[in-house]
Automatic annotation (TrEMBL):
<dbReference type="Pfam" id="PF07080">
    <property type="entry name" value="DUF1348"/>
</dbReference>
<dbReference type="InterPro" id="IPR009783">
    <property type="entry name" value="DUF1348"/>
</dbReference>
<protein>
    <recommendedName>
        <fullName>DUF1348 domain-containing protein</fullName>
    </recommendedName>
</protein>
<dbReference type="InterPro" id="IPR032710">
    <property type="entry name" value="NTF2-like_dom_sf"/>
</dbReference>
Length: 83
């Protein structure tokens, strides 16, 4: 998954994200989304709204390639990948 900050103001943050996954049949998908987070005075998230869309892709269309775990720092972000 790749998340990028989209906007922020006061106690609210908006992020964009995308991730690639496959189902039990081996079909690949890319999921795109937007999340809006609102934080309380204690610094904890008090509201989260998310919208996620799944798009079937071919394995050859995958753009996220790294070993299981944290995304490497030098891997392109969403903007760099034109997503």
């Amino acid at each position: 998954m790749i998340k990028e900050l989209w906007a922020f103001y006061g106690n609210r943050i908006a992020v964009r994200d995308a991730y690639e996954w496959r189902d039990d049949a081996g079909n690949w998908f890319r999921s795109y989304g937007n999340e809006n987070w609102e934080f309380g005075g204690d610094g904890l998230m008090q509201r989260r709204f998310a919208c996620i869309n799944d798009m079937p892709i071919k394995e050859s269309e995958r753009q996220f390639h790294w070993p299981l775990g944290r995304r490497p720092d030098d891997h392109p972000g969403l903007r760099d990948l034109c997503l």
